[in-house]
């Protein structure tokens, strides 16, 4: 036993054996967890897509059966969130595929002995916009998209103009 001074009052909870504190680690920032690679992550957790699809169908069925207005609104919000997440995931996947195709092209050019050429952010944006327009043209929604864009730009221009009451 540890010999203690009689002059000092003994603490109420005296630690006889030192207790090792549990070290919590966050896998997002820890090197032990490895590097995050979206392709591997998507392959590993691809089974979740099926589960999400089933849940979405279940919510749709509940929405059709539901009579309560408040409950119906909650279900509608949940359904909207699910569809938005799905769309965002598809968009992310498209972006990843585009980047991979650009990388493949660069590798092919490097194998041929040519100097690698990397696109600037603005050029990537232009390519993305051109692809979007081509997709809209294919689906036949280009005209409606352009009219909406014109209206938006007209409103912005109107705001930028000085007010007429000052004249």
Overall average residue pLDDT? 89
Low-confidence stretches: none
Number of strands: 0
Helix vs. strand class: mainly alpha
Helix percent reads 55-70%
Number of domains: 2
Report the C-alpha radius of gyration, rounded: 30 Å
Write the layout of secondary structure elements.
Blueprint: H1 38-44, H2 47-65, H3 69-111, H4 121-139, H5 142-160
Helix pairs in contact: 2-3
Care to give the gist of this entry?
It is found in: Nucleus, Nucleolus. The protein is mainly alpha-helical.
Explained architecture:
This protein has 167 residues and is mainly alpha-helical. The protein has two domains: 31-118, no CATH class; 119-155. Helices cover 64% and strands 0% of the residues. The protein is extended, with a radius of gyration of 30 Å. The model has no long low-confidence stretch (mean pLDDT 89). Its main location: nucleus. Belongs to the RRP36 family. Associates with 90S and pre-40S pre-ribosomal particles.
Supply database-style keywords:
167 residues; single chain; mainly alpha
